[in-house]
């Protein structure tokens, strides 16, 4: 079974209803324009600071189609 290194994953925030990704100017449909967070802590702090609701943390792995979605709020 192949394994993935979670430490090398891209970390983006996706709105569950809008199906859009958080970017520096608001929301985007293009995951490549999404803000890529350095740490999960940074994701959590941003969600609290911006009072985001109905969002998920999406871990994305370069070179693969693997995504892991974690419900945040």
What's the gist of this structure?
This protein is α+β, with helices and mostly antiparallel strands and 73 residues long. 14% of the residues lie in helices and 32% in strands.
How would you characterize the overall build of this protein?
The structure is a single chain. By secondary structure, the protein is an alpha+beta fold. The protein has one helix at residues 40-49, and strands spanning 10-15, 21-23, 26-28, 55-60, 67-71. The protein has one domain (9-71). The protein contains 1 helix and 5 strands; from the N terminus they run βββαββ. The strands form 2 sheets. Strands 1-4-5 form a 3-stranded antiparallel β-sheet, with helices on one face. It has a two-stranded antiparallel sheet with strand order 2-3. The chain is globular.
Structural descriptors:
alpha+beta, 3-stranded antiparallel β-sheet, two-stranded antiparallel ribbon, 5 strands
Q: Provide the succession of SSEs.
A: EEEHEE
Structural class: alpha+beta
Strand order of the largest sheet: 1-4-5
Query: What is the radius of gyration?
Result: 12 Å
Distance between the termini: 32 Å
Could you report the average pLDDT, rounded to the nearest whole number?
Answer: 90
Number of strands: 5
Number of helices: 1
Helical content, roughly? Answer: 10-25%
